[in-house]
Amino acid sequence: MLPRKEELIEHLSNKMTNQDIARIYGTTFQKIIQLIKKYDLNPNELRRVNKYTVYLHLFNNEVVYVGSGVWYRCRRYTNRRNSEHKQLMRDGKIEYKFVGEFDREEDARNYEKELIKKYKELGQAKFNKI
Question: Contact 63/125 with Cβ under 8 angstroms?
Fold first, then answer.
C-alpha cells in the first residue's frame, strides 16, 4: 500500500526522508519520489529546508540527545561521537521529534542549549556534552 497525497504531505511536512516514508509503506524510496512527482509536490517547500531545526532523540520515551541543524541532520548517525548513540541510531531504536524551527541558526543553537540544560537537570540527554 502506498501513501495517499495527504499522507505524503504530512510525512514531508514532518521532515521525513524518502527512505523513512518508504520504510513505513514497505516500498522503495524511488517509488516515493515517483509519487512526489505524480502529486506535483515540492518536498523542499513542505520540509521547509530553509529553516534551522531543534530536535530530540528519544530512546524508550526518554530524551537521550538534543540537537540542532538543517532538517535531515537529526537522522544522520555518521557524525555522532558516542558509539552507543551511533549504534542505537543504526539499529533504528531512536525516535526523532522536532521541537523548534527557526529562521536564524543562532536562535536554534540558543534554544538547543536551553533544552540541553533542562534535560540534563532531569537526568536525561546523556549523549549531550555540557
Answer: yes
Alpha carbon distance 70, 51 (integer Å): 7
**Angle (deg, nearest 10), helices 29-38 and 18-25:** 100
- Could you tell me what percentage of the chain is helix, strand and coil, using 3-state DSSP and rounding each to the nearest 5? 45, 20, 35
Q: Are 94 and 20 in contact (CB under 8 A)?
A: no
Question: Which positions ≥6 away from 15 have C-beta within 8 Å?
Answer: 47, 48, 53, 71, 72, 74, 98
List pLDDT tens digits, range 70-95. 988 888 877 778 899 999 999 989 99
> What is d(CA 103, CA 48) in angstroms, rounded to the nearest whole number?
10
Residue ranges with strand state E in 1-130: 52-59, 62-69, 95-102
Contact 18, 33 (CB under 8 A): yes
Whole-prediction pTM value? 0.83
Give CA–CA dist 64/60, Å, rounded: 9
Q: How far apart are CA 77 and CA 130, in angstroms?
A: 20
